[in-house]
Amino acid sequence: MEKLTSILLIAEGVESGTRILEKTIQLARRFGARVELLLGDSRDAEDFASLCSTRGYDEVVLSSVFRGAEPLNDVILRHAFERLPDLVVKAPAGGRAKCPSAFDRDDQQLAAACPVPLILMREHEWHSPVRVAAAVDISSDDSTLARSIVHTSGFLSLGLEGELDVLYSEREEVDEVLRMARVVKLARLMREFRVDGQKPRHLNGAPEDTLPPIAASGDYDILILGALTHHEGISALHANLTRRLVSAFDGDVVLVKEASKVSAEQSNVPLKARASL
After folding, report:
1. How far apart are alpha carbons 264 and 32 in whole angstroms?
2. CATH of the domain spanning 131-275
3. What is the pLDDT of residues 221-235, one digit of tens each?
């Protein structure tokens, strides 16, 4: 993530949308970004316009509304590709279900197709300073996704003046040389993106065992993960872990894709195909 000058925020109602808007304004003002507020119901436009005027949310542009039979993801993706924001923010779709914390399939599909990082933002207030965690996997030879996660987490935590923990869970128990090589690899990656002042949090054990309790602990306000796509060759275990972490975490989740794949995979994909990835 190189910059944050524009945010696309989706609000699906005045009550829930108001709190999400408040937090998005906090984020936007840290970076000097503008906010396009996309409404789920055109009848909410007057209420949001009045709210923005009363509170002095001058960075908000209430320029678009959607309504009708078009799927929500199609609308979001169409605007994301047309407006090219740096970030998309919405409440988790699971909030409409019996299990509000669950990682809804609609959000999984949106994260997979979205050309920019997606924040699933809940209503909980951030601590001061904001506490950020980034979960990375550097066990494979391809560190492209880990690079994107570390880059994004460093960028956001610096702008928010927050505290950052980079979480890495090491499942290798025997090969000490391999373990040390991965420690060095992560340190080099953090140094590259200028987050070497923050200590990585190394965990011993399989990530599916060590990470969910941390996500559920309430220690962090923002959790940054790799977004699931069908183009990564991602294992079922990894996909299930991501779903478990999103569902266990009650703060804001940032879902990031590899920077090198965003334009190559998405630029020529028809809208409906993007939404079904």
Report:
1. 29
2. 3.40.50.12370
3. 999 999 876 544 455
